[in-house]
From TrEMBL:
Binding, substrate: 53-55, 90, 203, 254-255
Name this polypeptide is given: Methylthioribose-1-phosphate isomerase
Gene source species: Candidatus Terasakiella magnetica
PANTHER family, sorted: METHYLTHIORIBOSE-1-PHOSPHATE ISOMERASE
Gene Ontology terms for molecular function: S-methyl-5-thioribose-1-phosphate isomerase activity
Active-site feature positions: 244
Functional summary from the UniProt entry: Catalyzes the interconversion of methylthioribose-1-phosphate (MTR-1-P) into methylthioribulose-1-phosphate (MTRu-1-P). Also catalyzes the interconversion of 5-deoxyribose 1-phosphate and 5-deoxyribulose 1-phosphate. Part of a bifunctional DHAP-shunt salvage pathway for SAM by-products.
Pfam family, one: IF-2B
Gene this protein is translated from: mtnA
Amino acid sequence: MKVNGTSTRPIWLDDDGWGVNIIDQTKLPHAYEIVRMENLADACHAIFDMLVRGAPLIGATAAYGMALALKKDASDAGFDQAYSELYATRPTAVNLRWALDEMRAQIFPLAEGERIGAAYKLAAQICEDDVAQNSSIGDHGLKIIQEIWEKKGKTGVVNILTHCNAGWLATVDWGTATAPIYKAHDSGIPVHVWVDETRPRNQGASLTAWELGNHGVDHTLIVDNAGGHLMQHGEVDLCIVGTDRTTASGDVCNKIGTYLKALAAHDNDVPFYVGLPSPTIDWTVDDGVKEIPIEERDATEVTEMTGRLKDGTVATVTITPESCTAGNYAFDVTPRKYITGLITERGVAKASKEGLAVLFPDKV
């Protein structure tokens, strides 16, 4: 996708052929800064402190993190240490484990002298595969938007509500939930996006709105609790969200607040779709509510907010009483019964074990 007219990705190999550059997403939208990763510690920091975030991008960063680690120590012990440290950075997004397991399966059996080059090659392939998968998600999701547009008599706009950021900043390109939106916009369908702010880290306000604005997509930022109201008044034609882990039975784990949007959509007969590449499916888990670990992050993400003051200064302020405690559950699980369909690179599946088996017989 583009930033100020220039094609950009959130992660790429530097010109020297070994350092890895990322966009520091903690600084957006007030500053656009590039950070260079040079070792395992840099990659772990980028994932844990959310300089990169979004399940597919976390996986890509972990893959490059393994390559950086092997550049310093390509021994079996070095490999195992890198795997363990990267795996411990974020507990919920399954793409992290998937990417590390791909590295273990394809790189670990090689001789030490072959591991570094092969690791960089595999990390690059993981990135390119993600781009292709997300583009296909966009193609399949575009058909859904086209059908709604035609049902509306090709008048007005198609109003889409999304939660958190499942855009190109959360992947290597295109995004998952946003890929159909970008494809619809580029094809001439008038779309308007209701962007949930997504407290407490405000990924909707800081990232999704920034992305859509750079691409010229019409959008409106709303507070997290406004979605149900808009649905009641017919202002939402469909919801599309992303996911950090989807179970083999079709349950979806996504940013906290997604479950409530799904409930509101169900009550108001608004289609609720989830965009995801297949590496985000955890084929080892069936019951999302019981089995998926939910990350709990630092309470200051809830008690503090960062923004730009009128004089242009970026500042962090406390918004709660000094003695206030806060809980910060980062994700929730939406049961499959509230999901209209799962938009994957192979097509749209019913949110069920049987539905996923139709598209992924090789995985079941």
